[in-house]
UniProtKB/TrEMBL annotation, chain A:
<keyword id="KW-0547">Nucleotide-binding</keyword>
<dbReference type="InterPro" id="IPR050166">
    <property type="entry name" value="ABC_transporter_ATP-bind"/>
</dbReference>
<dbReference type="InterPro" id="IPR027417">
    <property type="entry name" value="P-loop_NTPase"/>
</dbReference>
<keyword id="KW-0067">ATP-binding</keyword>
<dbReference type="InterPro" id="IPR003593">
    <property type="entry name" value="AAA+_ATPase"/>
</dbReference>
<dbReference type="InterPro" id="IPR017871">
    <property type="entry name" value="ABC_transporter-like_CS"/>
</dbReference>
<feature type="domain" description="ABC transporter">
    <location>
        <begin position="9"/>
        <end position="238"/>
    </location>
</feature>
<comment type="similarity">
    <text>Belongs to the ABC transporter superfamily.</text>
</comment>
<dbReference type="InterPro" id="IPR003439">
    <property type="entry name" value="ABC_transporter-like_ATP-bd"/>
</dbReference>
Automatic annotation (TrEMBL), chain B:
<feature type="transmembrane region" description="Helical">
    <location>
        <begin position="222"/>
        <end position="243"/>
    </location>
</feature>
<keyword id="KW-1003">Cell membrane</keyword>
<feature type="domain" description="ABC transmembrane type-1">
    <location>
        <begin position="60"/>
        <end position="244"/>
    </location>
</feature>
<feature type="transmembrane region" description="Helical">
    <location>
        <begin position="101"/>
        <end position="120"/>
    </location>
</feature>
<keyword id="KW-0472">Membrane</keyword>
<dbReference type="InterPro" id="IPR035906">
    <property type="entry name" value="MetI-like_sf"/>
</dbReference>
<feature type="transmembrane region" description="Helical">
    <location>
        <begin position="68"/>
        <end position="89"/>
    </location>
</feature>
<dbReference type="GO" id="GO:0005886">
    <property type="term" value="C:plasma membrane"/>
</dbReference>
<keyword id="KW-0813">Transport</keyword>
């Protein structure tokens, strides 16, 4: 496998097992800088585990994970993780602004610069007037926006997103998909996006990778040649979109069989 | 909202007034001998006299001081120990059985041991109070730290927070509702033990005052002391309630 130093994330023959049960076996995968790669697959295929390895939360038994050219041994601050369960990933005793502040405090941003940056970040995710609210006072979509703002506060080169919109209703989800795409286009971050929603994967990704279960390995690697910026209506009606969706649907059906 | 609060406040005053009235009637009609049960008026007079001409104020302060320091020591040790045990599953597994054995021991049973070791000193009294008030704080803190959402620890790891920062910014605030509940219980225990120690070890304070009043059949003085203890418990509970409301704003604002 070509493991060029140019790639943002490199899985190099990575394996992982829990208690003798293989979770991921011999996974090799390159994610280029600035690329949006979506990972799909039936449950138990190790897609979340792969994301956690890319975040340095889990270390592989075999093989190496490299991020921005360096072998990964622990989490890095320029790799931000957006968890699916926003309700658990936020500090309930901190307001929206203070939750974002946590990332700035971790990075040692001077106290005087924090309010301005927090305001900018919250405005970017559409929470301009909600700085002083507690997470429990906000809807699920708004809570996930706080988490995204906190991740953006890390100035991430890589964004790892674990089914971030999975728990949201359809309208909120589409809104957040578009917001995420425009933020990523602006910052040029690399995105590793795990989802179980095939349409979401095609809509967001430059590439969609399907994993096979037991143990997790790559089953399909599709390039998505859809024009950007993408549009919720037009993109989803394109023949190429429908073709990709069909291919992935067939893949999943076979993988689950 | 405002009206219903006012109404419940009024009702609670009414219930208290009825209680005092019942007490007065029982005393006036001598349903219980006045040697043992003086009326609220006599108890009140005794209370006022104790403060103006007697040394009840000094004794009251002695008890408050004892309770406060014992409770503070217990809280500091309890939170520090609880944090260490609560954040380490290994320590929890090792220590839990012993803690469960020590916890239900009535703290007053340790007084003879404490007297033997530390003598009849104020240090002994403080040690007993701190020991007794330690358990609710310690156990609540352990539970609070053990119940921190694992996801938050991962957020801390992803942000590369140091262990000390994780404890200060994530674990401690997360455990704070449990810790405050433990400290509230600890305060009650501290008050009880202050009084018991004063009675058993003869240290100057409300406990001793009550005991001496009972032995010399000064019932109004006895009741004055009991009323004072009740007030003390009541107002410390209110104080800690205010502290809770201030520190846990985020809980009351939840939808």
């Amino acid at each position: 496998m070509n493991t060029s130093n140019d790639a943002a994330i490199v899985f190099d023959r990575v394996s992982l097992a829990y208690g003798g049960r293989p979770i991921i076996s011999d996974l090799s995968l390159d994610v280029g800088r600035g690329e949006i790669v979506c990972i799909i697959g039936p449950s138990g295929c190790g897609k979340t585990t792969a994301l956690r390895m890319a975040g340095g939360l889990v270390r592989p038994l075999d093989g190496t994970v490299r991020v921005l050219g360096e072998p990964l041994t622990e989490p890095r601050r320029d790799v931000a993780i957006v968890f699916q369960d926003y309700g658990k990933a936020l500090l309930p005793w901190r307001t929206a602004a203070a939750n974002v502040s946590l990332a700035l405090e971790a990075a040692g941003t001077p106290r005087s610069e924090r309010p301005e940056r927090i305001r900018t970040l919250l405005a970017k995710v559409g929470l301009a007037s909600h700085e002083d609210k507690y997470p429990t006072e906000m809807s699920g979509g708004m809570q996930q926006r706080i988490q995204i703002a906190r991740c953006l506060a890390q100035d991430p080169a890589v964004l790892l997103m674990d089914e971030p919109f999975g728990a949201l209703d359809a309208m909120t989800r589409q809104g957040l998909q578009d917001e995420m795409l425009s933020i990523v286009a602006e910052t040029g971050a690399t995105v590793f996006f795990v989802t179980h929603d095939l349409e979401e994967a095609v809509y967001l990704g430059d590439r969609v990778i399907g994993l096979l279960p037991n143990p997790g390995r790559i089953g399909i690697d599709l390039k998505v040649d859809l024009p950007r910026p993408r549009d919720q209506l037009e993109t989803r009606e394109m023949p190429e979109f429908l073709r990709l969706r069909r291919t992935l649907f067939d893949f999943i059906e076979k993988a689950e069989a | 909202m405002k009206w219903s609060r006012l109404l419940s406040l009024l009702a609670s005053f009414l219930v208290t007034a009825l209680f005092v009235l019942a007490w007065k009637l029982v005393a006036d009609y001598k349903l219980v001998s006045p040697v043992f049960l003086p009326g609220p008026d006599r108890a009140w007079t005794s209370l006022v006299r104790g403060f103006t001409t007697g040394d009840l104020g000094v004794k009251f302060l002695a008890t408050v001081e004892r309770m406060f320091w014992g409770w503070l020591i217990a809280s500091l040790i309890g939170v520090a120990l609880g944090a260490a045990i609560g954040t380490s599953p290994k320590l929890r597994a090792y220590l839990a059985p012993m803690l469960e054995f020590l916890r239900p021991l009535p703290a007053s049973a340790t007084i003879p041991v404490a007297i033997a070791v530390l003598g009849l000193s104020d240090g002994m009294v403080l040690a007993v109070i701190a020991f007794g008030a330690l358990w609710p704080v310690l156990l609540a803190t352990i539970h609070g730290f053990a119940a921190v959402e694992p996801r938050l620890y991962e957020v801390g790891r992803a942000l590369r927070l140091s262990r000390a920062t994780v404890i200060a910014k994530i674990a401690l605030p997360s455990a704070s509702p449990d810790i405050l509940a433990g400290m509230r219980l600890g305060l009650t225990v501290a008050l009880i033990l202050s009084v018991v120690c004063e009675m058993i070890a003869g240290r100057d304070g409300l406990g001793n005052w009550i005991l001496l009043a009972a032995r010399s059949f000064r019932a109004p003085d006895l009741y004055a002391g009991v009323i004072l203890l009740g007030l003390l418990g009541y107002f410390t509970a209110i104080a800690i309630g205010l502290l809770e409301a201030r520190l846990l704003v985020w809980r009351s604002r939840a939808r």
